[in-house]
Task: inverse folding
């Protein structure tokens, strides 16, 4: 198992080099001179320009610039934002908990509904229940996320007036945010009603973001269950006289987990991508909105650093999924491939 | 069968059973008007070819039909005074596994791959609400694994199925089915996927357990050798109906129904006939052929690589008009040798002299003209024909590659189809429109289109039903004689080898352990391994009756 | 009848047989049939947009800003779906928008299929360096969330519908490469390929004549699903201002325009949103139907 993980991590080295190269290339292929962009409308005197060129190392040969960049990265230096003047890494860690909170609850909501629905549909294959459920999930799967988010706002915030339209918490609360997770911080603070406000702010974006993964999970669990339930060992389990519930869960679901875990892993990329839209629509101060804003502001160090940091999250998730495979499937654990 | 069994009462009786198929199927009933009894202490064999409904009838007994599409339409299944057709799901559940046990064909897929063996056995005790302590269950499991002849039950119990061999898994399956001392055991082709020596052991085990526990066993098989080995009584099924039933001795030696006669007459006799030695020119001569997989280099973690010898110092000659049988169990490397000769695999060292030229030394372009003269027939009639190409395109692909004009090769393909016994209209159809036997004929036509001198048949009849198998073997023999071919016949089936081969080479773990004329190898085997293989052939004592006068 | 003409005839009849059996399977799936009907109608609308639009899609009727659709109080038959904030006729914009959806879908899957198949086959047939190089490259693309990657690419290329399509194609290609490679590898293990090798068939022949047609079924399904994803992603990019630029009547851009009026005039976002949803849903339904009809494995698990 460990040698298996180690091998997986070795393969990551070229991938990681590729990721840094991609991010590095970003600043060099983008049209327009980054220094001039940074200087903005006013322009720069030539000597100041040369000074900045040197300060950013843009006067060095490309390979040297790349190597310096990698060395910087290895020291945890992801550059400084053109706009705020703060280190990219600091901004990332400040905003990441917001995205994590949102993505976590979206995933939670998606798993909680999607997987049981898929299993039920498989168990009642061909019935009205199955058809209804699959129609709903295909609709969810086909939903333009940004439109769905707007619909939720129109209905729950506009028509019913139940939930706020944007932000993480009502502006009337002021308290420290030591963890960055609003639900936890609001509980820790002694402000009355803060927790409720945080929950109300979270619900809509989490539901919007979780809808597409939920539909994917339902579809995938259904087909994985159908496939597993047609295997020989299911027949063996039934021939042993086990109850249908035990056959479905202990023998069926346990084996169907592998393809299900695969889509859960893949859905993290989908969630992070979806977070870009959701956070923009709900003005949720997370890394998705941060990236979009930075792209529009041409804040290249942020875009560059953000790309690498987000890719790192995706890679960590993929590694976790590989470990999960090992836990679920003894064949992978014991044979090591 | 002894008299006491005749007098005792049936433990399971099936009366006028009909199992209906969904409306789209090619016939309305999978099982039609089937009635039979099972007595304690007997082995009842149900024989039939694929699609005969033999498995469906046993699945009906277990309540394991793929509902709702396939279901019991009418009839009774009486077990311990109750009709299993009409009892509730809960009651059926308590009978399954405790009163009636079942084992299946594929030991590789019939056990849950992610659950330890002991856990899977434990489930049987737990689900039937026996008041047993943890410790009692544990000792029961050990006892069961011991009973089915597994060494180190502790270790086996702690293993996952993929860590066990096919034979071991099948023993685990049997332990599981018999854990609660059922009155009836249903065995659905339990040895079909196993090697011949493992099969012999499992058959022996089933026989022993059945006697010591006085169980009734329903043993489903397509293999008359197996029937001869273990059956007390036999039921022959065809297209869902019982065509004949009686004692094993009667059915095997004096079959009454025409279908039974046809099936039995196609069983190859194990006793090889003495044939004159072939003395024509040598077509292919294999010398010191080595083929290994893996490497002995250390990998980046300093772990030593492992070398597997797929073939080791292989030597043989095949002459014009000769059939050499390459026999052995799975993993013996017999298929690898065939694929090395045709250069689907590259060999490590050795010489393969084809018509006097060492073809291993030829470059790919130099090999091209030789390719026309060495052709292969593959095992799986489904995977060996490209599903997206028409039969005509498949047969003419080789000649087209070698520059024969399309019109000419199509014409030849028509002739070839006639030779292999298919209509020329087959050229315009796709492979999926043909049965397994017909596909194998197409495969033969494809090989012949290249006008080969050497034909390699890699388990070419293993995937076919016995009656179809006989026809294809006959066709191969006919072609060999007509075209004066040399043939390398790779097979695991000793009965088939005895019937068709002039010479036999027995392989074990990549090496040829015995090589000689078929008659000598079968009647006077020299190597211990050959002896054990022959000993393991099911029904070896049964002399297939000569039914040729009918 | 000569051999040639009988071969040609048989070609036709065999094709007909395959098509009719495919159609039989496909028709079993009611959803797929409805999806096909919807898409056919939409295609019809897209092709004849010039003839059926009541107004010019970019003409601004200054005296009729934010006019509600006919089913809302204050609607008028001159602008059935109402007008937007600049007074442009929504129905006409919707009709022209359907053209862009097909345009996006077809261009994206054309690039995905051609590049994906070539790279996937190259990887499958050249185990070792080439395979590793191609697959690592795909890993890199897949390490970025696709929408983020597409956004970054558009930022480099400059915001336009064409660049958005290129960006979307780039982020979709890895899925096609992986699928083609996996499928080709499983086909390469089958004996019909061995048989071709024993005939002396060239790698090119094995790749394109023998293996590729057997990889097509899952690729067609994947292409269908990607068609709809491309429409969704292009709309998302348009919504973020990184796709089609005004005044292009693209549905995602139309949604973006309506965003600031969602609480005051919510109907404005209803029509383009529903249009995207139904189009994507229909294509996905067709994709599901194709999967059932083309993939024998799924078929057996259905019955």
Result:
């Amino acid at each position: 198992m460990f040698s298996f993980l180690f091998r997986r991590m070795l393969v990551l080295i070229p991938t990681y080099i590729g990721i840094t190269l991609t991010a590095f290339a970003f600043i060099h292929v983008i049209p327009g001179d980054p220094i001039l962009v940074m200087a903005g409308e006013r322009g720069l005197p030539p000597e100041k320009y040369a000074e900045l060129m040197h300060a950013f190392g843009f006067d060095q040969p490309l390979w040297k610039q790349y190597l310096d960049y990698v060395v910087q990265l290895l020291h945890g230096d992801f550059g400084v934002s053109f706009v705020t003047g703060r280190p990219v890494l600091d901004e990332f860690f400040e905003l990441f908990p917001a995205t994590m909170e949102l993505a976590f609850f979206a995933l939670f909501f998606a798993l909680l509904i999607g997987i049981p629905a898929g299993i039920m549909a498989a168990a009642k294959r061909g019935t009205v229940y199955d058809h209804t459920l699959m129609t709903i999930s295909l609709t969810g799967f086909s939903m333009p996320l940004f439109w769905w988010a707007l619909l939720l706002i129109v209905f729950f915030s506009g028509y019913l007036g139940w939930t706020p339209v944007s932000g993480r918490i009502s502006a009337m609360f002021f308290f420290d945010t030591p963890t960055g997770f609003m639900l936890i911080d609001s509980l820790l603070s002694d402000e009355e009603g803060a927790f409720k406000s945080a929950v109300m702010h979270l619900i809509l974006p989490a539901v919007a973001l979780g809808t597409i993964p939920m539909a994917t999970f339902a579809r995938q669990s259904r087909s994985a269950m159908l496939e597993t339930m047609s295997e020989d060992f299911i027949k063996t389990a039934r021939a042993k006289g086990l109850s249908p519930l035990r056959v479905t869960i202990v023998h069926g679901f346990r084996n169907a987990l592998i393809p299900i875990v695969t889509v859960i892993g893949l859905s993290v990329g989908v969630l992070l991508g979806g977070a870009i839209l959701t956070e923009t629509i709900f003005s949720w101060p997370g890394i998705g909105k941060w990236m979009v804003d930075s792209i529009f502001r041409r804040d290249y160090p942020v875009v560059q650093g953000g790309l690498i940091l987000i890719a790192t999250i995706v890679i960590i998730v993929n590694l976790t999924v590989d470990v999960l495979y090992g836990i679920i499937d003894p064949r992978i654990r014991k044979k090591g491939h | 069968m002894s008299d006491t069994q005749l007098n005792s009462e049936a433990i399971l009786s099936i009366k006028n059973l009909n199992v209906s198929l969904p409306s789209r199927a090619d016939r309305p009933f999978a099982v039609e008007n089937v009635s039979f009894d099972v007595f304690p202490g007997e082995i009842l064999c149900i024989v039939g070819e694929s699609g005969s409904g033999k498995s469906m009838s046993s699945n009906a007994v277990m309540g394991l039909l793929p509902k709702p599409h396939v279901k019991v339409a009418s009839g009774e299944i009486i077990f311990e005074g109750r009709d299993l057709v009409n009892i509730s799901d809960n009651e059926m559940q308590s009978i399954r596994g405790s009163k009636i046990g079942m084992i299946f064909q594929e030991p590789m897929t019939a056990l849950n791959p992610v659950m330890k063996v002991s856990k899977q056995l434990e489930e049987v005790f737990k689900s039937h609400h026996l008041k047993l302590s943890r410790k009692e269950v544990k000792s029961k499991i050990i006892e069961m694994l011991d009973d089915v002849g597994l060494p180190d039950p502790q270790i086996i119990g702690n293993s996952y199925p993929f860590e066990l061999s096919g034979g071991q898994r099948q023993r685990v399956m049997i332990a599981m089915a018999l854990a609660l001392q059922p009155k009836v055991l249903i065995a659905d082709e339990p040895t079909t996927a196993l090697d011949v020596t493992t099969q012999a052991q499992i058959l022996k085990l089933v026989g022993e357990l059945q006697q010591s526990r006085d169980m009734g066993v329903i043993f489903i098989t397509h293999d008359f050798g197996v029937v001869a080995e273990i059956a007390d009584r036999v039921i022959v099924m065809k297209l869902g109906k019982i065509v004949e039933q009686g004692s094993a001795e009667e059915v095997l030696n004096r079959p009454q129904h025409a279908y039974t006669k046809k099936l039995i007459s196609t069983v190859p006799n194990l006793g090889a006939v003495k044939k004159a030695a072939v003395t024509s020119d040598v077509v292919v001569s294999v010398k010191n052929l080595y083929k290994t997989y893996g490497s002995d280099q250390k990998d980046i973690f300093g772990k030593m690589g492992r070398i597997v010898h797929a073939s080791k110092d292989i030597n043989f000659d095949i002459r014009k008009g000769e059939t050499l049988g390459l026999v052995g169990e799975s993993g013996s490397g017999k298929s690898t040798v065939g694929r090395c000769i045709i250069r689907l695999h590259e060999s490590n060292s050795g010489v393969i002299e084809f018509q006097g030229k060492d073809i291993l030394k030829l470059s790919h372009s130099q090999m091209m003209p030789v390719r026309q003269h060495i052709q292969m027939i593959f095992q799986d009639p489904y995977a060996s024909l490209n599903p997206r190409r028409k039969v005509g395109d498949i047969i003419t692909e080789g000649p087209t590659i070698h520059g024969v004009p399309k019109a000419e090769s199509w014409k030849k393909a028509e002739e070839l189809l006639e030779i292999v016994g298919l209509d020329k209209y087959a050229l315009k159809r796709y492979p999926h429109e043909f049965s397994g036997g017909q596909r194998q004929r197409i495969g033969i036509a494809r090989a012949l289109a290249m006008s080969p001198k050497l034909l390699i048949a890699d388990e070419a009849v293993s995937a076919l039903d016995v009656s179809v198998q006989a026809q294809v073997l006959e066709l191969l023999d006919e072609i060999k004689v007509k075209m004066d071919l040399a043939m390398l016949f790779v097979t695991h089936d000793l009965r088939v080898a005895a019937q068709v081969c002039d010479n036999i080479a027995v392989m074990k773990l990549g090496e040829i352990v015995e090589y000689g004329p078929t008659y000598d190898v079968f009647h006077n085997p020299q190597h211990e391994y050959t002896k054990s293989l022959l000993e393991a052939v099911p029904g070896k004592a049964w002399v297939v009756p000569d039914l040729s006068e009918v | 009848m000569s051999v040639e003409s009988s071969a040609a005839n048989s070609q036709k009849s065999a094709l007909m047989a395959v098509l009719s059996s495919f159609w039989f399977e496909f028709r079993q799936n009611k959803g797929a049939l409805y999806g096909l009907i919807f898409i056919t109608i939409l295609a019809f609308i897209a092709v004849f947009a010039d003839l059926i639009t009541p107004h010019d899609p970019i003409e601004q009727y200054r005296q009729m800003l934010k006019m509600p659709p006919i089913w809302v109080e204050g609607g008028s038959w001159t602008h059935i779906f109402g007008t937007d904030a600049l007074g442009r006729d929504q129905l006409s914009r919707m009709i022209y928008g359907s053209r862009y959806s097909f345009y996006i879908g077809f261009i994206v899957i054309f690039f995905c299929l051609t590049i994906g198949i070539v790279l996937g086959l190259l990887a499958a047939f050249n185990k070792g360096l080439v395979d590793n190089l191609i697959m690592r490259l795909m890993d890199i693309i897949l390490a970025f969330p696709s929408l983020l990657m597409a956004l970054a690419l558009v930022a480099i290329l400059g915001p336009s519908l064409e660049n958005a399509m290129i960006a979307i194609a780039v982020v979709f290609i890895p899925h096609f490469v992986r699928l083609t490679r996996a499928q080709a590898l499983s086909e390469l293990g089958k004996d019909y390929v061995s048989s071709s090798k024993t005939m002396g068939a060239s790698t090119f022949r094995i790749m394109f004549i023998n293996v590729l047609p057997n990889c097509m079924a899952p690729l067609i399904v994947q292409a269908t699903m990607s068609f709809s994803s491309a429409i969704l992603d292009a709309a998302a990019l348009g919504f973020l201002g990184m796709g089609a630029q005004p005044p292009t009547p693209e549905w995602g851009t139309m949604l973006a325009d309506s965003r600031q009026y969602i609480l005051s005039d919510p109907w404005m976002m209803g029509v383009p949103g529903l249009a995207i949803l139904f189009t994507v849903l229909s294509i996905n339904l067709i994709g599901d139907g194709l999967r059932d009809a083309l993939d024998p494995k799924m078929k057996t698990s259905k019955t």
Q: What stands out?
A: Residues 203-239 of chain C form the longest helix (37 residues).
